[in-house]
Amino acid sequence: MGVDRVRWGIVATGNISTSFTRDLKLLPDDAVVTAVASRSQDNADRFAAEFGIEHAYDDYRRLLDSGTVDVIYIGTPHPQHYAVARAALQAGIAVLCEKPVTLTAKQARDLVAVAAEHRTLFAEAMWMRTNPVVQAFFADLASGVIGEPQQVVADFAFHKPALPARLLDPALGGGSLMDGGIYPMTFTFMALGRPAEVKAVGALNEDGVDLNVAMAWRYDSGAVAALTCGLRSQNPWTASVSGPEGSLLLPHRFHHPEYYVRSTAAGQERIDVPVHGLGYHYEAGDVMRALRDGLVEVPSLPHAGTIEVLELLDETRRQIGVRYPGDDEDLGG
Ligand SMILES: NC(=O)c1ccc[n+]([C@@H]2O[C@H](COP(=O)([O-])OP(=O)(O)OC[C@H]3O[C@@H](n4cnc5c(N)ncnc54)[C@H](OP(=O)(O)O)[C@@H]3O)[C@@H](O)[C@H]2O)c1
């Protein structure tokens, strides 16, 4: 794709779309947001005015038909991702879609297949993977500084007196697992790969939405991982990998850190890596490089990782009994 200037379209005008669009401004002039779509013209116009966007549509489909964008960013709730992403890929429009890209692994496999069929780029916006601190952390881990990893401990839980309605609504893919649990799961997958065995317990509310989840993963190497997520507690929100020679730790809000801590026989060292903005422009920059290289997959946001973590999410939901409208067939339940 011989694009000098990459034209972005933003789908949905909620919290994360706002943060992502703000961060896009940190990229050089070759990234331009040309269109936004919302379910309401008022919201689209408000968003367009805030960010100086030329085209504003009251329907996602109209944005896809407009011919004004090369790539869309999807910031709707999770259940709405699949249909928008699929329609865009079929139209030859590249897609960067919020996490989790779909509710089930089956849907994610389908999107990867559609992307391949239409030779169109598709990526999950798992921004943790493109954060420079996280990348330095994993480079350090790969260097063998702590020896063979034996344990991962990671948690993603927060509490707000008034949670966004989306998080408690099964029809909007509510619950801590899909929203937050995907981060410790992806982190552990990056550190240790796919586990041989997964066990999970969860506490659900009367609507069947998970409020507290604990997971234990076992590996044939002998390594184990302990992961939690929740919506009822203020957790340390950290992630660590430990081995016989020491440990590496990502601090509070480990999915977009400013430093990490290496503890070895040499002592404890804080390692700072420069990061800018909120951190969403790193994934956007990687998408633009991949677009220019004519790729259907962004190397830092691999399809296999997206699908395998969704398979683990499927299995965890089966074990703790979280169901979303319409996913029984995909989950095989
Ligand atoms: N990467 C991150 O750091 C991060 C952080 C938070 C959330 N997320 C992910 O981003 C997605 C959106 O989260 P958010 O916190 O931005 O949610 P949000 O503030 O509720 O915004 C979601 C937007 O989606 C649109 N939408 C489309 N169909 C909808 C429906 N049926 N009900 C409600 N809204 C609908 C709405 O925009 P219009 O009215 O304009 O159509 C709404 O404003 C989720 O998949 C979540 O997992 C990622």
Quickly give the CATH architecture of the largest domain.
2-Layer Sandwich
CATH topology of the largest domain: Dihydrodipicolinate Reductase, domain 2
Structural class by SSE content: alpha/beta
Strand order of the largest sheet: 8-9-10-7-11-12-13-14
The coarse silhouette is globular
Order of helices and strands: EHEHEHEHEHEHEHEEEEEEEHHH
Number of domains: 2
Cα gyration radius (Å): 20 Å
What hetero molecules are in the model?
Answer: NADP nicotinamide-adenine-dinucleotide phosphate
Query: What percentage of the residues does DSSP assign to strands (E)?
Result: 15-25%
Instruction: Report the helical percentage.
Output: 25-40%
Q: Poorly predicted ranges (pLDDT <50, ≥5 residues)?
A: none
Largest sheet: 8 strands, mixed
Distance between the termini: 42 Å
Task: Give the CATH superfamily of the largest domain.
Answer: Dihydrodipicolinate Reductase, domain 2
Helix count from the secondary structure assignment: 10
**Average pLDDT number:** 96
Number of strands: 14
- The CATH first-level class of the largest domain comes to Alpha Beta
Domain Gfo/Idh/MocA-like oxidoreductase N-terminal: 6-121
Domain GFO/IDH/MocA-like oxidoreductase: 141-248
Protein name: Gfo/Idh/MocA family oxidoreductase
Family: Belongs to the Gfo/Idh/MocA family.
Describe this structure in words.
- Helices cover 34% and strands 24% of the residues.
- The longest helix has 18 residues, at 303-320.
- It has helices at residues 15-24, 41-51, 60-65, 81-90, 105-117, 132-142, 176-192, 280-292, 303-320, 328-331, and strands spanning 6-11, 31-37, 55-57, 71-74, 94-97, 122-124, 151-157, 197-204, 210-218, 224-230, 239-243, 246-250, 259-264, 267-272.
- The chain folds into two domains: 6-127 and 279-299, Rossmann fold, CATH 3.40.50; 132-274 and 313-331, Dihydrodipicolinate Reductase, domain 2 (2-Layer Sandwich).
- The protein is of the alpha/beta class and 333 residues long.
- Helix 4 runs parallel beside helix 5.
- It has an eight-stranded mixed sheet, covered by helices on one side. Strands 3-2-1-4-5-6 form a six-stranded parallel sheet, sandwiched between helices.
- The structure holds NADP nicotinamide-adenine-dinucleotide phosphate.
- One of its GO terms (molecular function) is oxidoreductase activity.
